[in-house]
Amino acid sequence: MKVMVDFEECLKDSPRFRAAIEEVEGDVGELEIKLDKLVKLCIGMLDAGKVYNTANKQFVNGIRELAQQSTKDEVIESSLTKFAESLQEMINYHTILFDQAQRSIRSQLQTFVKEDLRKFKDAKKQFDKVSEEKEAALVKNAQAPRNKQHEVEEATNILTATRKCFRHIALDYVLQINVLQSKRRFEILRSMLSFMYAHLTFFHQGYDLFSELQPLMNELGGQLDQLVVDAAKEKRDMEQKHSTIQQKAALQDFSNDDTKLEYNVDTDNGIAMEGYLFKRASNAFKTWNRRWFSIQNNQLVYQKKFKDNPTVVVEDLRLCTVKQCEDIERRFCFEVVSPTKSCMMQADSEKLRQAWIKAVQSSIATAFREKGEDAQKLDRKSSTSTGSLDSGGEPKERSLKGESALQRVQAIPGNACCCDCGQADPRWASINLGITLCIECSGIHRSLGVHFSKVRSLTLDTWEPELLKLMCELGNGVINQIYEARREELGARKPQPGDSRQEIEAYIRAKYVDKRFVRKPSPAEQRSKFMALTKQERRLSSSSEHLPPRPPPPTPKLRPASNASAAAGGEEARRDSLFCPDELDSLFSYFDTSSKLRSIRSADSGIQNSADGSREMLASTPSNNSLSEADLPEPPVPLSLPRRDSPVFTEPREYSPGLQLYWASCARSLPDMAEALAHGADVNWVNTEDDNRTPLIQAVQGGSLVTCEFLLQNAANVNQQDIRGRGPLHHATILGHTGQVCLFLKRGASQNAVDVDNKSPLSIAVDAANADIVTLLRLAKMNEEMREAEGAYGQPGQYSSNSHTEMQYRKCMQEFISLQLEEP
């Protein structure tokens, strides 16, 4: 160690010592100034960093809000969410960097200045004081007279004591100087090195973070190029559409016919007509207000704003009449009169008034016709497979929306709170998991991807009955017993309402993606579970033996719909068909309108018109209402139907989650199916020991439509075939499960697939004389042909498959599904 001041020179108190002391004191004073400045600059940097972090956090929150606002665009939402998470991590890294600067620069150097330099100053004060005392003692000793012995002795004693004190204090001062000069080197270097290492860590963390983000950024870069191209194409299409509509409006303005621009028809939503009308108020002033009117579900309603609940003017159009009003001052007025009140309205033109009057009259006629059809179908409602084609009047509501679905789902124990954070009154659900979620957790679930969780609103979305039944079969309690089985054992904390999004998201990913809290069963537990499922399947199979048997396919006992005495006479009549002759005429009248379209195609390609042929083929299907025993075809070759009453259970060579899912599907046990999926079961697992059947085929065998829906919501392949080439649709047709047939058609099952016997589902249904399934398959096939024809030839208007009749067809399929859900 280099000594700045020599201890020997300190004892001599030589000029070299005094010069060294002055040099050191000047250097220490300058060092103090520089360190004070550096500490103040560090404080300013830290304050600026806090302001930067605060502004950066606000910016990241703005990105999150933009992502939440873009929930309809999954790409933007997921990308912005990921970017916000990465930027938030960078903010956290900045905070760590500033904390390190606080410790290394501000705290360490400030401590050095306040403690070590203060000790140096105190030592300097004592040294200066004793130096002055020494000089005074030397002067006094020199001035003592020789003849005054007592003064000489006194001066000598004072000088001796002062020199001893000076030497002691001077040596301490020199030691303090040398220690300070040595300490300043490592204090400054240690502080700055710590600060630089903090920067090194910061940039390494940032580099690692963005290295993980780079593949996503590269992918988005490629998508961005495509988005630019698509945006340009959409812009051209919009400009072309704008020009077309502008020309159409100009032609209508030229012909003075703007009627079609003033109202709209939306058949899919049951709206016969809608548009703006002036309505005369019933107050004393008889004021006129412009309102948006619509005719829907055989009711006349209006609303002021889109978010307002519609106000019903006429409850039932069958009880009202419509007429023109020429006895008032305003033009183009007409009146809708009901037994309790009347409503005076005004159109914008005479053509528009006539269009509204015609629409009201047509809706009145439709209401009477549909109510009459309801009365004819009352005697067939007791059948377990009876459906309804009506779409007006008082239909039995099959699809639930809003508070109805919310109340039914939240009534399940445990569903009144969010499954993941416990927030009360959740309004969202994961339909493939069967749980309820709060809005924050639903956003996190949506970011996981649909292969993990499919999120749907309990109040904003429409709920099909099969989905609602699925939610009621599972619930938060069942799922948490599976996905949180080891949470307490692992000491994991479950999030609470109000926790940060990062904590909740980390927990949800650990729960559903990593499945960290799922308990892996032992081989003994797997065997016990397997035996319990097989026993449950045997019990379900044996209970099905007591159901009324189906008639054999070759000679089914059919009865006409009007012949009630045949049933009373003791014949074992087959269940009524969904379709009566009038309804078939109604359905085929829709397909027969395609004759013009078919003629166009036949003119181009030489293909003959097949509408009549399709109708004749469907009419040849055995039906309760249209065929007698004399009309029956020859007895078909019996099908090799699967035996539900004698399933074969063998001890498996190896237990696996896929095997558990397989037998749970047959046993209709949704909790066991959910547990198998949590354990990693493949939803399309193939049982090579049982004709390559899948869990979905086993669910068909089990007869539960909800089980099929659960598998389909979890990405089961609706067209996967067994070793005989039969898919789920084949098996549902063989077993006569009409509701499952409708469900598979609804989910895109191919009805053109054939098995090893070259049998399609349609040919199987024809051989089995199942009129309802034959009718549904053929109507679905013709509907598909019509859609292909429309796509090829672009025929608009009355040939569109989005017609009222197709709506009836879809509704009858949903009715079959609902009726099977009601069966015990």
Automatic annotation (TrEMBL):
Membrane-topology descriptor: Peripheral membrane protein
Regulation: GAP activity stimulated by phosphatidylinositol 4,5-bisphosphate (PIP2) and phosphatidic acid.
PH domain boundaries: 270-365
Pfam families assigned: Ank_2, ArfGap, BAR_3, PH
Limits of the Arf-GAP domain: 403-529
GO annotation, cellular component aspect: endosome membrane; plasma membrane
Ranges of compositional bias, category Low complexity: 383-392, 558-570
Molecular function via GO: GTPase activator activity; zinc ion binding
Organismal lineage: Eukaryota, Metazoa, Chordata, Craniata, Vertebrata
Region (Disordered): 371-403, 520-575, 602-651
Main location: membrane
ANK repeat ranges, renumbered to this chain: 691-723, 724-756
Compartments, record wording: Cell membrane; Endosome membrane
Protein name per the record: Arf-GAP with coiled-coil, ANK repeat and PH domain-containing protein
PROSITE patterns per record: ANK_REP_REGION (PS50297), ANK_REPEAT (PS50088), ARFGAP (PS50115), PH_DOMAIN (PS50003)
Biased composition (Basic and acidic residues): 371-382, 642-651
Gene3D superfamilies listed in its UniProt record: Ankyrin repeat-containing domain, Arf GTPase activating protein, Arfaptin homology (AH) domain/BAR domain, Pleckstrin-homology domain (PH domain)/Phosphotyrosine-binding domain (PTB)
Keyword terms, alphabetized: ANK repeat, Cell membrane, Coiled coil, Endosome, GTPase activation, Membrane, Metal-binding, Repeat, Zinc, Zinc-finger
Domains as described in the record: The BAR domain mediates homodimerization, it can neither bind membrane nor impart curvature, but instead requires the neighboring PH domain to achieve these functions.
Record's function text: GTPase-activating protein for the ADP ribosylation factor family.
Organism whose genome encodes this protein: Megalops atlanticus (Tarpon)
